[in-house]
Amino acid sequence: MLSFFKTLVVAVMNSLHQLLLGQSLVDGEWLTDFNMVIGMDEIFRIEARAIVEGMKLAWLKGYKQVEINCDNVMLIDTMCNEIASISNIAEVRLIHEWCNKDWKVKFRHVLRVSNKVAN
């Protein structure tokens, strides 16, 4: 049985900058955390960038099954329909390109209340 590489994506904002956070786990065990400090931008684009970074990490570690958990329902809906490939947001197009690699990617919306990293 193949392991799923799960990435939980969260963007946390404060008045000075936005801190991008993610955590990755395999078989219920946390594998790694990653974070980036980036400039001010809209939350949709920031969370999309976090997904790209999580996907890169999974690919580099050699996983063939990835589950992306995110509390941004608009982003999950965008990725699950046909408009992602023609989006005017570069990060969304990047996610679409990463999805077309030789692996299985599943997107899952999680409620913010159950997103322990964001709370």
Automatic annotation (TrEMBL):
UniProt key word Signal: yes
Positions of the RNase H type-1 domain: 28-119
Signal is among the record's keywords: yes
InterPro entries for the chain: RNase_H-like_dom_plant (IPR044730), RNaseH-like_sf (IPR012337), RNaseH_domain (IPR002156), RNaseH_sf (IPR036397)
Signal peptide positions on this chain: 1-22
GO molecular function: nucleic acid binding; RNA-DNA hybrid ribonuclease activity
Keywords, alphabetical: Signal
Descriptive protein name: RNase H type-1 domain-containing protein
Species per Swiss-Prot/TrEMBL record: Gossypium klotzschianum
